[in-house]
Design goal:
By secondary structure, this protein is of the alpha+beta class. The protein has ten helices and 20 strands.
Length: 396
């Protein structure tokens, strides 16, 4: 069914009600707390329900988030809601994202957006039917991205659980048939060998990257705090910094990146012979005698990270891991049978995580190209509607 869309010029003050956020006193509870850079904690109580959160001040000034449930918004945010009940909040969320609110910021010391300025911004508003269809189309992309993101988290959690069960708790398949013997690490399965990490893993292995030509480059911001995913790969000339290839683990050496959890697994290069380079603050970990997946999951473990954090030295705020710490971290290396079985299970998980991440990147790119064209009316709603319906069927 074709949608009749009409447009009219309005100001944000005519379309939205504005509320200031409030300072948070407790960081424990069941409700998400939004700051200008998204969710920053939890609260025992909520101040708002079903609203759009705009970053008001600082580096994330002009950021836009939407929470359909109850939440707390801090005092560095502005909360907005539809002034007229028939206006669709999902459409208004996409409209605000399209506006690039940071460009309306003032302030001498740091960026600042105010209600007064935002209320004066003029926008082209479609009628109710147009709002519904545009929100439907754009949310189809976000729904599929969210679904893929959930699958990625489940896969990584499963891999982490398997690593811990098999190689920390020694509850691998048929472990009941293996005798436990004493070692310098304590009781371990018979046939397993106690090794320091540097006997099982190459730390900053020599990897040649040509200086000439453009190559993939990763800044520290490309690493995730809580998953293996690597995003926003750049292209640069030169070869100064960490060098790596597929199967390597990138481990942040500097505070606070290490404490925040920045660790990545490299599998974005086109082939195993391809090389890339990145931040000088990466430590590259490459398997010698275990497997690449084992190395990454070990690097994510609290024991491994605590050992590295304890070794940090240097000026306050710029402390770095001392590589000698890895020779002081010991593991019980399994014999080939459980290690081969482990790799056979988790390697497809890692590949699927990479595939889902690529799909998400493509979806985000398509959505971000489509958003301004739909919001401005450049593309008729009906032209994008069928594709959105197909995407929503994939999320069902």
């Amino acid at each position: 069914m074709r949608v009749a869309v009409s447009w009219s010029m309005r100001t944000l003050g005519e379309v939205l009600d504005f509320y200031n956020g409030k300072a948070i006193k407790s960081d424990e509870g069941g409700f998400p707390v939004y700051g200008s850079n998204g969710i920053i904690g939890r609260s025992p109580i909520a101040t708002q329900h079903d609203g759009i959160i705009i970053g008001r001040v600082g580096a994330y000034c002009g950021s836009v988030y939407y929470c359909p449930s109850s939440f707390w918004a801090t005092d560095n945010t502005i909360v907005v809601k539809p002034k007229v009940a028939k206006d669709k909040i999902a459409f208004l969320y996409y409209l605000l994202r399209h506006l690039d609110l940071h460009r309306y910021a003032g302030g001498a010391a740091q960026p600042l957006v105010t209600q007064t300025i935002l209320k004066q911004v003029e926008v082209s508003m479609p009628n109710r039917e147009g709002q519904e269809r545009i929100a439907y189309i754009l949310s189809a992309y976000d729904d599929l991205i969210e679904n893929n993101t959930r699958r990625i988290k489940i896969l990584e959690d499963m891999a982490q659980m398997l690593y811990r069960e098999w190689f920390v708790n020694f509850r691998f398949p048929d472990h009941e048939k293996v005798r436990i013997v004493e070692s310098e690490l304590g009781p371990i399965p018979e046939g397993w060998t106690v090794k320091c990490v540097t006997d099982a893993v190459n730390v900053n292995p020599t990897t040649k990257v040509p200086k000439e030509g453009v190559k993939p480059f990763l800044p520290m911001g490309s690493l995730s705090d809580n998953s293996m995913l690597i995003r926003d790969v750049e292209e640069r000339e030169g070869n100064s910094g960490a060098k790596f290839r597929n199967g390597d683990t990138l481990f942040a050496r500097i505070t606070p990146c290490l404490e925040n959890g920045k660790t990545g697994f490299v599998q974005f290069l086109p082939c195993d012979d391809a090389v890339a380079f990145g931040s000088t603050e990466f430590i590259v970990l490459r398997s010698k005698t275990v497997c690449a997946e084992y190395v990454y999951l070990m690097a994510r473990s609290s024991e491994f990270r605590d050992n590295a954090i304890k070794s940090m030295s240097g000026a306050s705020g710029r402390q770095r891991v001392q590589e000698a710490c890895f020779a002081r971290f010991f593991i019980a290396e399994p014999d080939t049978s459980p290690l081969d079985r482990f790799k056979a299970i988790v390697s497809p998980m890692f590949r699927l995580i990479h595939s889902l991440n690529l799909k998400n990147e493509n979806l985000r790119t398509t959505r971000d190209l489509l958003l301004p064209k739909l919001i401005s009316g450049e593309i008729p709603v009906d032209a994008a509607d069928d594709h959105a319906s197909e995407l929503l069927e994939q999320t069902a």
